[in-house]
Amino acid sequence: MLTKKLKILSEFKTTLPLFNAEKIMVLLPYEDGRTLEKNNVSVISEENGMIELTLTDFELQGLKVGRNNFLAKVFMKDGTLYTVNFANGCSIAVDDRTQRKVWL
User: Fold this and answer.
1) CB 75 within 8 A of CB 22
2) What CATH code is carried by the domain that includes residue 55?
3) Which residue segment(s) compose the domain that 37 sits in?
């Protein structure tokens, strides 16, 4: 299992408070062009916009190698949807020793 802590920022590069977030979905790129949708994202700090994403080893091994963009969709209780782009936020490499993918 891999756990990553991520900070959600608004388009103005300020923290997006998550007090009214109903659901958060993270979309990660797979090698075959498909997208991994993770809905079980935990909010660890509503005030600071911090979330925690957990991937299984199986999910990690399917991710696209290299520096990749990925998205988070934040669904608010009032119906507002925020789409957050993590530019080059997903850096996946293959460990030379184990030949397994790792998120740097």
Assistant:
1) yes
2) 2.60.40
3) 2-103
Label residue 49 left, alpha or beta by phi (over 0 means left) and psi (-120 to 50 means alpha).
Answer: left
Our count of domains for the chain comes to: 1
Q: What is the pTM of this model?
A: 0.89
Residue 29's pLDDT is what? 96
The side-by-side arrangement of strands in the sheet containing 101-103 is: 35-38, 21-29, 66-76, 81-94, 101-103
Q: Rounded to 10 degrees, what is the CA torsion of 98, 99, 101, 103?
A: 50
Contact 90, 103 (CB under 8 A): yes
Which parts of the chain have pLDDT scores under 50? none
Cα 28 from Cα 41, distance rounded (Å): 13
The pLDDT of residue 88: 85
